[in-house]
Amino acid sequence: MLPAFFHLHSIDECGSTNDLAKQMAGDGAPEGTMVWALRQTAGRGRRGRAWSSQPGNLACSLILRPGLPPGQAALTSFVAAIAVGEAVSALVPGKVTMKWPNDVLVDGAKISGILLESEAGRGGSVDWLVLGVGINVRHFPEEALYPATSLLAAGADLTVEQVLVAYAGAFDAWYHRFLSQGFAPIRAAWLNAAQGLGGAVTVRLHDETFTGRLIDMDDDGVLLVDVGGTIRRITAGDVFFPGGGN
Fold first, then answer.
1. pLDDT tens digits along 56-98
2. Can you list the pairs that 45-53 forms with residues at least 24 positions away whose Cβ atoms lie under 8 Å?
3. Which among 19, 145, 172, 225 is placed 20 to 30 Å from 35, CA to CA?
């Protein structure tokens, strides 16, 4: 039921679908190989954070070989966010928005996580990418850095298989658009759905926290925040919106 681009490798349980996919990529698995586990026991998210992967939620990792330099290849995480957002938008009645860099929110609560890992190749391009995506289908953590939700809590009683098909179809279209047209359409779609664009935002970096106005995301995926008339370029960090929301 998946587009022809995908080669599905399904398992009942593993520690991390990303770790398994990285091993397979190193062994030469082709682009489009998708590792899908019904349960992860050691899932992780950005910046080494744990990612809860209960049975009933989607946990999958996709091997990609785009032949791009590392900076451009890293933009694939935004491609995944747009694909998840498009799939979720078609499944739930709530408002779906994007929180930088690649979180997808439903009515302000996080519903997915994305983790991109890569291996450097020769000639300045990455050898492979592994794109891990987790979507809260039936469960979500009660205590997390950001408020969270699930498709079920948002009004969609679906199976993991249905969500996998929806995500894969959207990703197939957006990934090939990215390869043929570059980052511009991805950036436009992200900005169109950006949470809090034009409003106040607090940015937490590893060594400081500050508040400003969220004004843009540039062609490199860098967040632009106006802090008292000075434009700060955010390449890594966490963003928070007034009222404790995402």
1. 999 999 999 999 999 999 999 999 999 999 999 999 999 999 9
2. 45/113, 45/115, 45/134, 46/113, 46/114, 46/115, 49/145, 51/113, 51/115, 51/134, 52/139, 52/140, 52/141, 53/134
3. 145
81 and 113 in contact (C-beta within 8 Å)? no
HSE-up (13 A, CA, CB side) for residue 12: 0
Helix (H) or strand (E) holding 160: helix 160-181
Residues in the chain: 246
CB 194 within 8 A of CB 98: yes
Provide the sign of the torsion angle of the four alpha carbons 186, 189, 193, 196, taken in this order. positive
Q: How far is CA 25 from CA 18, 70, 90, in A?
A: 10, 16, 31
Q: Which residues contact 217 (CB under 8 A, 6 or more apart)?
A: 100, 187, 190, 191, 194, 223, 224
| Residue where the block lists tokens 């450097």 | 120
Neighbours of 141 (CB within 10 A): 16
The pTM is what?
A: 0.92
Say which amino acid occupies 38: L
